[in-house]
Protein: Large ribosomal subunit protein bL20
Amino acid sequence: MARVKRGVTSHAKHKKTLDAAKGFYGRRKNTIRAAKAAVDRSMQYAYRDRKNKKRTFRALWIQRINAAVREHGLTYSRFIAGLSLAGIEVDRRMMSELAIAEPAAFAAIAEKAKAALPSA
Structure:
C-alpha cells in the first residue's frame, strides 16, 4: 500500500481555520490551537444569534406599532385583536414600516381595527 503524507490536507484545514479567525486579537488569529477554539465558539454564537436576531426585530416592530397605535387611542393588544376581527392580515414588519413611512395609511388601518372591536 502506498504511503500517505497528510501535510497538504492538514495545511488546508489549518488555513481554513486561520482564514475564519482573521480579525481576532492576539494568538487567536495566528496560532492554530487558539484559533480553532475561538472559531468554533464564534460559530456557536453566530448560530445562536441568527435566531435571536429574529426575536429582537419582532420586539422592535411591536414597540413601534404600540407607540404609533397609542396616538389613535388604542393599545397594541387591542389593535391586534381588532385587526384579526376586521380580517386584516398585515405582518408586524409591514405594519411598523407603515407606521413610520405612511402615517395616513396606518391611521386608516387603525380606524378599521378600532371599528371592528366590540365596544365595551
